Amino acid sequence: VESGTTVSENLVWSGCSSKSLFGFDGVKGELNRDLSAEMIMKLGAAFGSIQGRGARVVTASDGDSSSQMLKKALQVGLLTSGLHVLDLGDITVPVARLGASWYGAAGGAYVQNISDGNGSHCLRFFDKDGMNLSRGEERKAEQLYWRDDFARVSSDHVKSVQSEGQVVERYRDYLLSDLDAEVIRKMDFRVVLGCPSSFPMRFFPGLLKELGCRVHFLEVPAIVTPETLSEDYLQQSLKDAVTDYGAHLGAVFCSCGEKMLQASGEGSLAAGEMLEAIFTLLQLRHRRLGSVAVPVTASRVHEELAGRYRGRVIRTKTSPRFLMEACKHNGIHMLPLSFDGLKALLELLDFLAAQKKSLCEVLAEIPSFYMEKKEISCSWGQKGRIMRRLVEETPREQIEMIDGLKVSYPEGWALILPDPERPAYRIYSEGNTEEIAESLTDFYLDRVDELKEERGR
To answer: Checking DSSP bridges between strand 424-431 and strand 412-418, what pairing results, if any?
Structure first.
């Protein structure tokens, strides 16, 4: 039990008790230990109390039976606070985010299974625009939760859970918006798809066929996380499938529907930072946006691309909400492409068709970049002291503190970022060569290790 925590429930079946329920991207925990039905019901009541009696919220989950169980518990909590609940069914995270604004909701929540091993689940809460809650709103929900200070309504004010059956059609229309369907049809694309979630399979293959694409399917695990997309076996499976079918490109989506892995017909892979660079190129050249938003961890390649097209790069904190806010303020009225894999694939097909280029040719336009990411454990009590020491010993002109400590060098940069959920530091770096990137990462790993051994001042 963390210091300063008020314990108001039985901890026999819980992993731990913490003052913070919300982490980097929602509330996570193991089913029936950290996340029990009772706990989720209380959290729903806390979230509902913030929205106010009579407000409308949307709820959704993936197709996993345990996720649906937790969603029902969440709905009970929302109803006890007097809210109207609109259930969007078994969908993906991007659709749940969009649904909050489509249906005029005050906010929403999504439940998903994020592991096929230990039963870990994640609850994400959204505001009326589909963005993650602000830290202030999260704290307010946590305070109400720990104090059991919920708005309870009488039976006369208990609303109902209504199901929305048109969400697929609305999302389908959204995906097709701004696309030049006729130009895409002329390209006669052959596409390999790997979809762990059943939701896209209801309509997406048919949508691609309407756009003149020939679709082939790749069998993937039932649960694919953003981390899984970087695993060698999945990347090789996608490359092999693209080659075997003679496809122009292939895509594997993670279960939540946000991230994807791409492979070109020539066998080149695009994932993570490379895919983000393609999105920047697409938005600057194809959509002719004046600026793009990327997190502070992103490569300098975005500035290089922006320089070609007289654009501007906005750097944000790593939390998803900050990136979404920057896009909204930039006049972009859709989810960032890094948060909606299906939309990103269609935008990419539209871009390739308009440019009459292959994915491999577009990849060749991205300047080379070299990045490293490593991690080192560091107790919660030492995190603040170590960060202060690093700031003190670094020349001010080299420092940028959008999120964590970013130190610039003539041939690269390094970012020392405290992990918000675990006792650890994440070290990112980029260099003109792979060796420089690795040396910068190793330098700060060693420095943090040295400071851990010092006595606090």
So the answer is: antiparallel
Token pair listed for 366: 């991205």
Residue type, 73: A
Residues near 152 by Cβ (< 8 Å), separated by ≥ 6? 45, 80, 81
* Three-state secondary-structure class, residue 316: strand
Is the overall model pTM greater than 0.85, yes or no?
yes
Query: What is the per-residue pLDDT across 388-403, written as a single tens digit (0 to 9) for each?
Result: 999 999 999 999 999 9
Question: Residue 303: is it exposed, middle or buried by C-beta count within 10 angstroms (0-12/13-18/19+)?
Answer: middle
Q: State residue 329's pLDDT score.
A: 81
Task: Quote the tokens at residue 98.
Answer: 């969009």
Residues 134-153: tens digit of each pLDDT: 999 999 999 999 999 988 99
Tokens of 182: 């006729």
For residue 153, CA distances in Å to 43, 85, 146, 388 come to 16, 15, 19, 48
Q: How far apart are CA 131 and CA 379, in angstroms?
A: 31
Q: In what order do the strands lie in the sheet with 27-30?
A: 27-30, 120-127, 107-113, 56-61, 84-90, 161-163
Residue 77: CB atoms within 10 A of its CB come to 25
